[in-house]
Design a protein that fits this description.
Strand content: 15-25%
Structural class: alpha+beta
Strand order of the largest sheet: 7-10-11-9-8
CATH architecture of the largest domain: Roll
Distance between the termini: 32 Å
Order of helices and strands: HHEEHHHEHHEEEEEEEEH
Shape: flat
Largest sheet: 5 strands, mixed
Number of domains: 2
CATH superfamily of the largest domain: Pleckstrin-homology domain (PH domain)/Phosphotyrosine-binding domain (PTB)
Number of helices: 8
Helix content: 40-55%
């Protein structure tokens, strides 16, 4: 999605339209798109449908058509209930909670819809459910539908009102006293042993499955193990360029926020559930709020010039915040007058 198109979408969205989309139009669209193909192709389906497959894609379990319809409808119903409930609540949400619920609702509804649609399309005209085969593109399509619906729900929910946050006053922000030509660097590292051990264990389990040529679960476990290892170590660096975060022993991936994009830096008390849990939560591009949550407690909050917010948990953030504000003030002083 191009930057111009995304900005035009954001400019055309407001609270009222977000509530209508989440509470009415998107649920109706998803219901029609899901049950339309089922109603059209119902007569072409066998009495039982393959619903469970082994790692080679061969079916080893089945369910009646009505059983599949009931199971997927429960997922879809729960997801749409999330969306309708979010749209109907008039009180402001805590930071990022509406987007988290919007993603969860969309993911459940999209997963149920993806399973039902893919099953109906791929198993039409079969005589017996044993003739079915699970292809990789079906898995990708089902997961993609769930993720896309979740992302859409999170983005729309981000336009709902959030709980008012305390107004930041310039005199309350810590600022480091730097000489005109003085430069400073502040670093901090958060390390969690149990995430490292868990990540290594899951990664090794993936290698064992790969030796047995079970490639799909092996890749899943290897990827999961890598994510645990990545978030077991978080390294934060602040200097005249801004804020940089490196993850894991390989210092990859990385997150950077340039100094020129930061309006103010402040200290915040981070509550994980207000940001959707632990790990990298939210999206600066999608919902304009993101947080790297390693644990509950103090953290650094960056209010960006375009209204977006970025947060990272870190021990003893006062020197880092003071250094950032000093560099922000220095940059403002060096900028030419308009």
């Amino acid at each position: 999605m191009s930057l111009e198109f995304r900005r035009s979408l954001q400019a055309g969205m407001n609270e009222r339209r977000a509530r209508l989309l989440l509470g009415v139009f998107l649920p109706l669209f998803l219901l029609v798109a899901t049950y339309g193909p089922y109603l059209i192709l119902r007569s072409e389906l066998p009495d039982r449908l393959a619903t469970h497959f082994d790692f080679s894609g061969t079916p080893d379990g089945s369910m009646t058509v009505h059983g599949l319809l009931l199971t997927t409808s429960i997922l879809i119903g729960l997801g749409l209930l999330f969306w309708v409930a979010i749209a109907g609540i008039r009180r402001p949400f805590p930071a990022s909670l509406a987007s988290t619920l919007g993603f969860g609702g969309g993911f459940l509804a999209g997963l149920g819809a993806g399973i039902l649609i893919s099953t109906v399309i791929t198993q039409r005209d079969l005589t017996h459910w044993q003739e079915a085969n699970l292809s990789w593109w079906v898995l990708l399509g089902t997961c993609g539908t769930a993720i896309l619906a979740g992302a859409l729900g999170a983005w729309i929910a981000s336009f709902l009102p959030v709980t008012a946050e305390p107004e930041l006053r310039a005199e309350d922000l810590p600022v480091m006293d730097l000489a005109p030509n003085q430069r400073a660097v502040w670093t901090a590292t958060l390390y969690t042993n149990y995430l490292s051990y868990l990540g290594v264990g899951i990664f090794l389990a993936g290698i064992v499955l790969a030796v047995g040529t079970l490639w799909l679960p092996a890749l899943f476990l290897a990827g999961t193990g890598f994510l645990f290892l990545a978030f077991s170590t978080v390294k934060v660096r602040i200097d005249q360029e801004g804020l940089q975060i490196k993850y894991g022993l390989l210092s990859w991936p990385r997150t950077s926020v340039d100094l020129e994009k930061i309006a103010t830096a402040s200290i915040i008390d981070v509550r994980p559930m207000q940001w959707g849990g632990w790990g990298y939560r939210g999206s600066l591009k999608l919902i304009r709020r993101a947080a790297v949550v390693h644990r509950a407690g103090p953290g650094i909050r960056l209010d960006l010039n375009d209204g977006r917010v970025f947060v990272v948990t870190v021990d003893h953030p006062e020197p880092g915040v003071a250094l950032l504000n000093a560099e922000i003030n220095r940059r403002a002083g060096e900028s030419p007058e308009p």
